[in-house]
# Entry
Amino acid sequence: MKPVPPVIVIGMSRSGTTMLTKMLDELGLYSGKKLTDNHEAVFFRKINDWLLTQCSGGLENPGVIRYLLEDPEARALYGGFVEFTMKTPGAISFLGLADYLKYRTPAALDVPWGWKDPRNTFTLPVWLDRFPGARIIHIYRHPLDIVNSLRTRRRKGLSRLKEKGGLSGTLYKYFLVRRHMGTGRVFTDLRGASLEEGMLMWEEYMAEARRHVSGLGDRAIEVRYEDFLAGPVPVLKSLSDFCGLCPAPMSIEKTAGGVNETRRLAFLKDPELKEYSIRISDRLKAYGY
# Structure
């Protein structure tokens, strides 16, 4: 059978990419064998991390990948290396052993497949060089719900560094040293500590994602998180068609039942966030909020 181009999910962290990808997975989109807790294919996330670190970038400062994208020679060579990487045994973590022996590379898959990773928002041009027929889903969410989620994640991450007494505390710190020092792993994302920095980061992701959506025409679709929560069935039906899936109507309704509508505009319950949203109302209006 003819290889099927992937579906690539883009959008800032905490925008609903995990929820969306899990639901599409349930409806038939193959999203990988080995996944993180956030339903990210470990194989493709490692490649995205590698691409960003070539420019000293990361999840919180991904825009520096422009130094790679704007260098034609480097872009072609790095892209060729990515293509080679997809043919190595490392791809077993995405395909599983049986499918690796069958396909040898994810690029040869003949079923609807894809992956999600917020980093895709900025590394996408490299992937489009490899998969010119790829289809793109961009999901976005009110920035203050995202910023609030980032601040919660920051607090949890920093709590690991707080003093813990006794032998268990000392052993835990040795564990952290082995896990983080020299490995590239971070304790937590720090940029979203302030509301303004979180908002600026959201605007960077939105600008990049919408450039892609605008340029790709009918090969890209945009989903507003709040609309998804308010009416998941029609959104999932539209996304299933877009991805080339053929789930039964009852399957769509069952999957849509997992949506938690209470997460819609949750920031309004926080006086600080609500007041800040009023102060930046002109910036929010530019994005339909």
About this structure: The chain has a mean pLDDT of 93. The CA atoms of residues 148 and 161 lie 21 Å apart.
